[in-house]
Every structure is written in structure tokens, then in C-alpha cells.
Amino acid sequence: MSTSNTLELIEFRQQCQQRVDQRLGAALDAEIVSVTLLEAMRYACLGGGKRIRPVLAYASALAVGGELAAADNAAAAIELIHSYSLVHDDLPAMDDDDLRRGKPTVHKAFDEATAILVGDALQSLAFQILSTEADALGANNRLAMVQLLSQAAGATGMVGGQSLDFEAVGVKLSIQQLEQMHSLKTGALIRCAVLLGGMSCGSSSNSQMSALASYADNIGLAFQVQDDILDVVGDTSQLGKPQGSDSDKNKPTYVSLLGPDKAKALANSLAEKAIAALQGFPTSADPLRELAAFVVSRLH
Amino acid sequence: MSTSNTLELIEFRQQCQQRVDQRLGAALDAEIVSVTLLEAMRYACLGGGKRIRPVLAYASALAVGGELAAADNAAAAIELIHSYSLVHDDLPAMDDDDLRRGKPTVHKAFDEATAILVGDALQSLAFQILSTEADALGANNRLAMVQLLSQAAGATGMVGGQSLDFEAVGVKLSIQQLEQMHSLKTGALIRCAVLLGGMSCGSSSNSQMSALASYADNIGLAFQVQDDILDVVGDTSQLGKPQGSDSDKNKPTYVSLLGPDKAKALANSLAEKAIAALQGFPTSADPLRELAAFVVSRLH
């Protein structure tokens, strides 16, 4: 990635972050009667985070010839699912983390009951946004997006992967088992972000969607391998969570399985495969291409 | 309610329970990779419960001239949302209950992390069923059902009410505040069950939907008042949870606010209003009428 591409990507990411923050801020408004719940939902969602999934959704919309605005609802919905999963993940009964994005986690800043309810409400809101907001898309497309998000979020996707992750504590997994776990736990939602972005302009072809799916599968796995690397080599202030918090819990990681060098080589090769999947796309897919490189070069 | 009506209602309820159990059993199948998650989801959802919300959805479909089969997806989706809320409600950080429907709660039978994930996955599955299953309804209707369910389930509905309930512990509420809390906490989902049932045959008129909404608002509140009465006078073996578990927690209830006699009179008057709202409906609305009487006469 050249310096000028890096600068352009930073600008693009900032633009996407602003768009999704605005959309989320509007959704988390005064219609919510419980003051505590509204405050805690805003705390969990606004003003922080890499917004990598929304950025992917926006970049994917551009790649198929759409405009950024078309992906606002998809970006917000996917970030709501991601945010809820973090709130629940951090709970004492789950990963028991006190810090997230450099701030106290929701159950620390509020309490456990509120954190459980916040996660539950954020998930509902994701489906509300996809189903409620008036946009140029017809009902068939929007229903297909609800379907995709529900599959990616639930027992056949993210939550299924989280459960496999718990089942794996203290167990020596094969690389195939680790890949299956991560393809659900983090991959499903990243894949969904890319696909929802592609669907959001309503005119993407089947071959474009297949290419996006292939891009997304590779980038999703690359993202997880890089996360495992950062868990070992990153420092707490940059990560926003204690360094080594996953390896401490005796969870299998790509680094523990492959060693740091081979893990790094795997991440890079997955990013290259992701970029190769976009071969037929015009320059409007450049942000997606640059995001693939970013995912494996990021430091937190 | 005459004896023959009672017998017919028991039969109708059994028929509905079988239908929704079949639909839920099919949705909770082997496609879910995590063995623990699948087992715990089935434990949480199958083989128990009054299924009052599905029964209302089916009865509502009949009332507007539809067939039972049309409401299968609506009934299953609404029961999934209800089941997830029970699993999360029972958690130690929430109501801390060890028994539900006479069985150990999910976090007792499994563990807390699994119970959190089970609730999360059941919520996703509700939206997946509404958006995925092929039925005679068009995309516009199904999208409207997703919209309604997401609003009823989340911060503007059930979860918002749960949060208000927590905010109310140890606080002396006015009857209006108590009503607002319950209209969200339990009313929103009961209303949604009735409306989804009415929408599920795709041909209900606006005036029919308004009448169903009025029926549902009254029956929803009646349900809660009766719950408060049973919490004081019911016994643990029939309730499936420790008697007095709500009043012990210093939560405001209709009985603590009005006394048992006035609470009972309120429940009966709400059931009568619900039945009155169905004045224009043919005899196919009889199950809905009988359910209104059942809700305030039930012993658990």
C-alpha cells in the first residue's frame, strides 16, 4: 500500500465512520423511554470503534457502482450486531473484560443487567433499521438483507462460532477446526457486511456477489489471524483491551498453532487472495482492495 | 365461559401448541454446528410453556378469516422472542431464578455463558424465520412483520419495559407508571402476537387491525394484572417458579398498589373490554374471545 493510498483510505474510513455514527445516533434517540437503557445503548455504540464492518459495507456498495448513502442502513445494522456481541462478550460469565475501546465495558460503566438488556436491544434495533427505514430498495431486497443478517448473527453464524469458541477452551484444535470456529465467530458478520453493502444498491449481479463473497471469506479469516497476532504482540494501550487476554484463557489461536511467522504469512496470503477475487471490478473497488491490505497491517 | 367453551378452548390451545412446537423443532435442527448451543436452545424452547402468544397469533389469524397454517411462522417467531427473554430474565444478574416451567433454568442446566448465547441466538432465529420461510405472503407483508416484531421486542418495546422494571425496584410507582412499564414489558409482545396473526393471512382490513390492536392492548394488561395476582396467591408447583418471587424483590405490582380485590376487578374489566373490541367479528373470532376470559381465570 503506497503512502497516497494509505492517506486516501484514512479519509475514506473517516467518511464512513461519520456516516454510520450519524445513522446510529439518529436511531438511538429519545423514543426509547428507559433513560438508563438509552444512555447505555449510546455508550455501547457511539464515539468509538474501528467501524471496520460498516467501512466494508460502504466500500462494497461503491465496488458494485452504488453510492455511499445506499449502504447507510446496512452499515448501521451490521455495526449494531457487532456492538451487541461485544457488550455480551465482555460480561463476567463470558470473557470478563473490564476495558473495551479504552473505556470501561458496559457492565462496568453501568451494571450487568443493563449490559444484558443493552445487547438484546441493540440486536432488535439492527433488524428494525433494515426493515423500517425507507430507502430506494424494494421489499424483496430488504427482506433478503434481513434474512442474511439473521443467519450471519445467530446460531448458524456469529453466536454459533462463539459457542464453538467456548467449547474449545483447553482443547487442542486442528487448523481446520480453528478455521471453522472463526469462519462463524468473526467471518460470518464480515462476510455479511460485504454482501449487504453489495446488495444495498439493488443492482449487483450474481457474479459480482460471488466475487464479493470470496473476497469477504478471505478477508474475514485474515482479520482473525491478525487479531491473534495482535493479541500476542500488540500493547494494551493500542488494543484498548489487555494484551494477551485471549492466550491467557488457554484459547487456541493461529499464533499458538502456527507460530507468529507462519501466522503472519497466512494473514498476508489471505489478503492477497481477497484482492485477487476482485479482479473483474473497476477502480471503484479500490477501497475494498486497500481495506484487505489494511486488515493485515493494522496495529490494533 | 361455559364448560363446552372451556373444552373447545383446551382443544384449540393443544392444536396450536402442537403446531408451534413442530415449527420450532424444525427450526432448531442439526444445521447448528455447536452441539451445546443446539441442545440448550432446544431445552429453552421445546416441550413446555403455555404458548399463550402463539395461541393468540393463531386465534387472531382465524378471526380475520385465515387458516392456522398461515400463522405458523408468526407464532414461532413470537415464541422465540418470548423464550429468549425468559432465558435472559432468569440470569443471576437479572431475576436470578433457578426454576422455569418446573425445570432448572438454562443457566442452571447449562451455564451462564451458554444461557446468554442461547438468548442471543433465539432472537436472531425469530427474525430468520419471519424473513426466510417461504409462505403465501408477499415480501411487503413479511417485511412489515419483521418491522413490527423488532419494534415490539427491542428498546421501544419489551426490553425497554424490562429496563423500566429495573429502574422501578424500590420505587413507589403511580398506576400510570406501572401501566406504562407493563405495556412495554409484556404488553408489546402480546400486542405483536395478535397483530402478526392478523397480518399473516395477508388480507385483513385496517379496521380489523385496529380492533385487534385494541383487543391486544386490553388482554396484554389483563395478563400482567393476573400474573401479579398469581404471584401472591398461586403456589410454586403450579407456577413453575417460586411463589412471591416478584413481590420479594420489592417490585411494584398491581396487587401491592391496588390490593387483591381491586386488582382482580381490574383484570376482569380489561378482559371484558378486549371482548368488546371484537364486536364486529364473526364466530371465527370466538377463540380470541375465549382466550380473553382464559387469561384472567388461569391459575398459572
Characteristic terms for this protein:
homodimer, 300 residues, mainly alpha, Farnesyl Diphosphate Synthase, two-stranded antiparallel ribbon, 2 strands, 71% helix, globular
Total of DSSP H or I helical runs spanning 4+ residues of chain A: 15
What kind of assembly state do the chains in view correspond to? homodimer
The total domain count of chain A is 1
CATH architecture assignment name of chain A: Orthogonal Bundle
Classification by helices and strands of chain A: mainly alpha
Mean pLDDT of chain A: 90
Shape descriptor of chain A:
globular
CATH class assignment of chain A? Mainly Alpha
Largest β sheet strand count, sense and barrel closure of chain A: 2 strands, antiparallel
Can you summarize this structure?
The structure is a homodimer of 300-residue chains. Chain A is mostly helical.
Set down the secondary structure blueprint.
The structure is a homodimer of 300-residue chains.
Chain A: H1 3-27, H2 35-45, H3 52-63, H4 72-89, E1 99-100, E2 103-104, H5 106-109, H6 112-132, H7 139-153, H8 158-167, H9 175-199, H10 206-233, H11 236-239, H12 245-248, H13 254-258, H14 260-277, H15 286-297
Antiparallel strand pairs in A: 1-2
Structural description of this entry:
Chain A has 300 residues and is mainly alpha-helical. Chain A has one domain: Farnesyl Diphosphate Synthase (Orthogonal Bundle). Chain A is built from 15 helices and two strands. In chain A, helix 8 (158-167) runs antiparallel to helix 9 and helix 10 (206-233) runs antiparallel to helix 14. Chain A is globular. The model of chain A has no long low-confidence stretch (mean pLDDT 90).
